[in-house]
UniProtKB/TrEMBL annotation:
The keyword Methyltransferase applies. Residues 649-722 form the Pre-SET domain. Residues 725-938 form the SET domain. Keywords: Chromosome, Coiled coil, Methyltransferase, Nucleus, S-adenosyl-L-methionine, Transcription, Transcription regulation, Transferase. This is Histone-lysine N-methyltransferase eggless. It comes from the Eukaryota. CDD domains: SET_SETDB1. It comes from Macrosiphum euphorbiae.
Length: 963
């Protein structure tokens, strides 16, 4: 059977129709590659002849031959006939030209001259016509494009107006206060004491802390501008033109123009990928005394970051003298501020703000209770005022001895309050904190307003004014940051072709994790066919990370990458999600390099860890004391660990435990946080996210174990895997041995565990006087969880403390208190060791949203309502202790920092005995290569008599002392 067919790919003729030899012009007409054996049917040949006749007539008559009737080129043309076809014509034999006929040559010359004289003018004319035709068509296309652009602009404008109407700032969350509950004491019937109120939750639109970036504005941008003065509201307008690099001509929406510099302009929207730091120059919406939001923005300075303490709002010091709280969505950032922001503010508040920022985060404030009567300045006169409400750092006063009733919110650190004014006068203009003076004690005893020193670092993260980038710098003079070069012979991504991804997409790169021992963990994919690039979205002014896979696919988020790895996995060589990172601030190619002559030991683990851990010392010739390096915890003779897998709860997951609601191990992790809704507000964010832990889970994490059916690549297996971080043990001048990372560590990355010998409480106490618990860590998971309980009743009853006349209901609702750990007042040797132990303990407490004094400062006995689990343990055994003095791992060398970059997490893997968790370390933030890894020991200064430890962490918020 013949395979011949018509050269017209869209031919509608009968397949059995007679075919004719196709000429070159016919193949051109149907966009078919010419070969001597090409054939065409009669109908298609007739169509082609008609077309060329029409073209010939137009050409002869001097008309443009261009039109839109020329057939479109087929998208796919497949010709399967080969050169060995029986009907193929042999082109090898051609007429010989070795002895041309003179008559034929003369005829050819004559024909060429005739064609030149007759046809060439027609070609020239046709060229001019075609050029004119194409120019007219181009003009039509340009006009059409402009029309489409205008329509797009109109649609964008309509969408923008619709968006503004949908999200117009026409209302703000109102403050709702609980009914006043007065508790009268016998001291003074005129002085009531009021319980605190419950604060609302975290707003959804509040970003996380980070580096604040200001982008440049350009002509056509919408901005807010200072049309009149600093005391009056800023008006919305458009940048009409640029006068210079820093000055712009602004056309205001309400009419008028004005030339303003960057310091007098603010961004139009509240979009920000980080919180505004204290000291930032902003404009914010102002509230009147009826707690109703206006639409006008006034300029001011951020005085307090959003915290639970202040209902996650910013405290704004306005230039006109008012002080109010504002939510993130009602604040706009000023485009540029001076290095000293006090130079930008109005002279009326310049002195106050300068003192405030110099002393921050310590602030002198007056502590009030509701219904107290105080003296405050009003219209340059001291007036009596009654406390109506307290809102974090603000107090609402109702002035009494004036004719017209007036209510005003005042900052509790303002010298308009008589106590602070008197303190400033009596202190001889010395800036000192008034704490624990005789006057303060008397006022506190009599339940009167008194001055206290409030330090925001005591209740949360500190805010750095001088240097807002809290990233710790690499150790000086020890090494340099270099960029890793991926070898040229490593696989590179193939050009992308549309396909369904499968294990063949990665099979050819021959990935094998066992061969990655000397690679930084985030560079592993780059050695096996992946590339990573950071792209900038010019419209959104955002940067994002793009991974290109071995098969050429581009992936820009974790979910897509996980699905890709799942589709392309094969055998036991599947890549895991902790090898990838989509944060543009993390550089996988960064590597901290040190001089090799100062490497004292190549690997302190001597091959036990998957990653080698070198020992570096450029200060002296010391090397670490010899220890028995271990990968699993050991036990002393008096400790019997039940590691029988029959006592473990396992899951039956076959999907890598993706569905957390169906995984038994995930549900064990979720069960604890359900009992603490005030602490774990976002239940879905508890635990690992693609093998990273972004927030500590104080109730513990239960990983999958030997009883589970899931694979080793399961998303709930992290701490049990071999150590992947590239670490180095190095010697410091003041802190002894420390640990640093040689590569960038993304936030939430698992670093290592703390291993040692599990000992009983009694055995550890016997050695405490010799080593001060230097390498001891209590496995006090039960203590941690129970002391977070409301009121801490289960543990307080066991402490022997004396009653004190301090009244607990006298504390106002203006301080943030977070769960703490109880410390006994009469400390035994063990109790002293407990206070020194490296733990995550804080020093304040909160119960049911009602603030109480820290248990470190009170000795009032509280009756217990619950029975502690500790009472069911063997009293001779007590809690267990991990001792890494003789046997341990790299986790024993981490130093303390008042601004830590790692945190501790209790994890249960090989046993569900709550007394025996694995102690593991995770990255608290993105950590650059070369940075020392440190956590907060939370020692209590002064808790041990005749023992002083100085702190040399070098952080901006260093407390100076550890103990």
């Amino acid at each position: 059977m013949s395979n011949r067919r018509c050269i017209n790919n869209n031919c509608q003729s009968n397949p059995k129709a007679k075919l004719f030899v196709a000429q070159q012009s016919m193949c051109n007409y149907y966009n078919f590659e010419y070969r001597p054996d090409c054939q065409v049917c009669e109908a298609c040949m007739r169509e082609c002849i008609i077309y060329f006749d029409m073209i010939g007539r137009r050409f002869k008559n001097g008309e443009c031959i261009l039109d839109d009737r020329y057939p479109k080129k087929p998208t796919i043309v497949i010709e399967l006939s080969g050169s060995n076809d029986d009907n193929a014509i042999d082109n090898d034999t051609e007429p010989s030209t070795e002895n041309p006929n003179p008559q034929i040559a003369e005829l050819s010359t004559s024909l060429s001259k005739i064609i030149q004289d007759t046809v060439e003018p027609l070609f020239k004319r046709q060229t001019e016509l075609c050029e004119s035709y194409l120019i007219s068509e181009k003009a039509k296309l340009v006009a059409g494009k402009e029309q489409i652009d205008n329509l797009v602009d109109q649609v964008d404008l309509a969408i923008g107006k619709l968006y503004n109407n949908l999200y117009k700032f026409d209302s703000q969350r109102k403050f709702k206060y609980d009914p006043e509950i007065s508790i009268y004491e016998n001291l003074d019937d005129d002085v009531p004491i009021v319980l605190t109120k419950t604060l609302p939750g975290l707003p959804d639109d509040l970003p996380e802390e980070g580096l604040l970036i200001r982008h440049l504005v350009k002509v056509g941008d919408k901005v807010y501008g200072m049309k009149h003065s600093q005391m009056q509201p800023w008006i919305e307008g458009t940048i009409k033109s640029a006068v210079s690099d820093t000055y712009f001509n602004i056309l205001f929406d309400d009419g008028g123009e004005k030339v303003l510099n960057y310091k007098n302009l603010a961004y139009i929207d509240a979009t920000s990928h980080a919180q505004y730091p204290v000291g930032s120059r902003v404009i914010a919406k102002f509230q009147d005394m009826n707690i109703q939001l206006t639409d006008k923005f006034y300029v001011g300075v951020i005085g307090e970051p959003p915290k639970k303490y202040n209902n996650f709002r910013y405290l704004i010091f306005f230039d006109d003298g008012w002080t109010q709280y504002a939510y993130h969505k009602n604040i706009r950032l000023v485009c540029v501020e001076s290095p000293n922001v006090c130079d930008d503010v109005h002279e009326n508040i310049r002195r106050f703000l300068k003192t405030y920022l110099r002393n921050y985060p310590e602030r002198l404030m007056v502590k009030f209770n509701k219904k107290q009567v105080v003296r405050a300045e009003r219209n340059n006169a001291w007036c009596a005022a009654k406390v109506k409400n307290i809102d974090a750092s603000l107090v609402q006063l109702k002035f009494l001895d004036i004719k017209v009733e007036c209510t005003e919110w005042i900052y509790r650190g303002s010298n308009r309050l008589f106590l602070l004014y008197y303190n400033e006068i009596s202190s001889n203009n010395q800036d000192k904190a008034v704490r624990g003076t005789k006057l303060t004690d008397v006022n506190k005893l009599l339940n009167r307003p008194y001055i206290e020193t409030v330090n925001l670092t005591e209740n949360g993260k500190s805010v750095n004014i001088d240097n807002r980038d809290n990233t710790q710098k690499p150790q000086e003079n020890n090494g340099v940051i270099k960029s890793i070069e991926i070898p040229a012979n490593c696989p590179k991504p193939l050009p992308y072709k549309h396909h369904e991804c499968s294990h063949f997409c990665m099979l050819w790169v021959h990935y094998d994790y066992s061969q990655t021992k000397c690679m930084n963990v985030l560079t592993i994919p780059l050695h096996y066919g992946f590339t990573r690039s950071v792209l900038t979205d010019e419209k959104l002014k955002l940067r994002k990370v793009i991974y290109t896979t071995p098969c050429g696919l581009n992936i820009d988020d974790e979910n897509k990458m996980y699905n890709y790895l799942k589709l392309t996995s094969y055998g036991h060589s599947q890549m895991t999600m902790d090898l990838f990172n989509f944060d543009c601030l993390v550089n996988p190619l960064s590597s901290f390099s040190v001089p090799k002559e100062f490497i004292r030991i190549q690997d302190i683990s001597y091959g036990i860890e998957f990653k080698s851990i070198s020992v570096f010392n450029s200060v002296n010739d010391l090397v670490p004391d010899h220890i028995k390096y271990i990968k699993e915890r050991m036990t002393s003779p008096n400790v019997n660990l039940n590691m029988d897998s029959k006592f473990l709860c396992g899951c039956n997951c076959i999907d890598n435990c993706e569905d957390k609601n169906k995984c038994s191990c995930w549900q064990l992790t979720y069960e604890g946080p359900k009992n603490y809704p005030e602490i774990f507000k976002d239940h879905d964010s508890v635990g690992y996210s693609f093998k990273r832990l972004h927030k500590q889970v104080i109730t513990g994490i239960f990983e999958c174990n030997a009883n589970c059916n899931c694979k080793k690549t399961c998303l709930n297996r992290v701490v049990q895997e071999p150590m992947k971080a590239s670490l180095q043990l190095f010697f410091t001048e003041k802190k002894g041995w420390g640990v640093r990372t040689l590569a960038d560590l993304p936030k939430g990355s698992f670093i290592c565990t703390f291993l040692g010998v599990v000992r009983t409480e009694k055995d550890a106490d016997n050695d405490f006087s010799l080593n001060w618990g230097e390498y001891l860590a209590d496995l006090d998971f039960l203590d941690t969880v129970e002391e977070v309980k409301d009121g801490y009743e289960s543990y307080v009853v066991q402490t022997e403390i004396e009653d004190e006349s301090e009244d607990y209901t006298s504390s106002s609702d203006d301080e943030e208190f977070i769960p703490s750990w109880a410390i006994k007042s009469k400390m035994s040797m063990f109790e002293s060791r407990m206070s020194l132990r490296k733990n995550l303990q804080n020093t304040n407490t909160k119960s049911d949203g009602k603030h109480e004094l820290s248990k470190l400062n009170t000795q009032q006995k509280v009756e217990s309502k619950n029975t502690s689990l500790l009472s069911y343990l063997d009293k001779d055994c007590g809690i267990f202790t991990m001792d890494a003095k003789v046997s341990g791992n790299i986790g024993r060398y981490f130093n303390h920092s008042c601004d830590p970059n790692i945190f501790v997490q209790n994890v249960f893997i090989d046993t569900h005995d709550l007394r025996l968790p694995w102690v593991s370390y995770f990255a608290l933030s993105n950590i650059p290569a070369g940075t020392e890894l440190a956590w907060d020991y939370n020692y209590i200064i002064g808790s041990v008599k005749n023992k002083i430890l100085m702190c040399h962490c070098g952080s901006k918020n260093c407390k100076g002392r550890l103990l």
